[in-house]
Amino acid sequence: MIMSQETSTPAIVAPQVLLNNHLKALKLPTFAREYEKVAMESAQDRADYPRYLLRLCELERIDRERRNVERRIRLAHFPQTKSFDTFDFAAQPSLNKALVLELMRCEWIEKRQNCIALGPSGTGKTHTALGLALAACQKGYSVASRAHGSARRTPLARAAKAPQHSQAADRRRTGLRAVHGCRLRTALRGVQPAL
Predict the structure, then answer these.
(1) Most distant CA pair in the chain: distance in Å?
(2) Average pLDDT over the chain, rounded to whole?
(3) 49 and 134, same domain (yes or no)
(4) Quick one: 102 and 48 in the same domain?
(5) What is the pLDDT of residue 192?
(6) Confidence check: pLDDT of 87 > 90
(7) Would you call 18 exposed, middle or buried from its count of C-beta atoms within 10 A (0-12, 13-18, 19+)?
(8) Cα gap 4→12, rounded to integer Å
């Protein structure tokens, strides 16, 4: 009886391939993208392993927060993105700048308070509402936006026409959208576009 010897050598996979595969499975894209660069920087600085891992974790956390803010802004469906960096408070002296800057801290959302902007056309209500909504996105809150004049086309408006008698249906009929349990609404001559 003749036995043939088949040499079965396991395929050797480079550690970098395995590491990238594991980092992808763990959903750590910044680790995968930056670990070699940070390793070289750490070697030049003679940093120990915990400092190397700390640098990678900091980069991952910063990048993840940036992506989360971008995702919240994208999902908010803002008609346009406006911040208070572009708002001219001097052109609108009746608007209390200190109050607006206090509202930007989003403490009113945490306290589950409402914020209502009232006034005639062209006084910056929409810009203020969009700026506050953007600030809320940047603070980690999810925001829902409905563009003025789009009420007929949205599923929200179709649901509001259905004969329902619940608190949620009442909110839909009034055009209010919740921001973590709080409402941010602009009102102009009886029309209530909402964020």
Answers:
(1) 102
(2) 76
(3) no
(4) no
(5) 36
(6) no
(7) exposed
(8) 24
Residue 2 reports pLDDT greater than 60: no
Domain limit, last residue, from 31, 47, 72: 72
Residues 86 and 69: their CA atoms lie apart, in Å, by 19
Q: What is the DSSP code string of 134-174?
A: HHHHHTT-------TT-TTTSHHHHHHHS---SHHHHHHHH
The domain of 100 spans 89-187
First to last CA, the chain: 83
The model's confidence at residue 139, banded by pLDDT at 50, 70 and 90, is very high
DSSP states of 65-107: HHHHHHHHHHHHT-SS---TTS--GGG-TTS-HHHHHHHTTTH
Strand order in the sheet with 178-179: 115-118, 182-187, 178-179
Q: Residue 84: inside a domain, yes or no? A: no
Is residue 136 within 8 A of residue 183, CB to CB? The reply is no
Rounded to two decimals, the pTM is 0.63
Residue type, 41: E
Q: Count the neighbouring beta carbons within 10 Å of the beta carbon of residue 39.
A: 14
Structural domains in the chain (count): 2
From residue 137, alpha-carbon distances to 27, 72, 106, 116, 156 in Å are 23, 6, 10, 18, 21
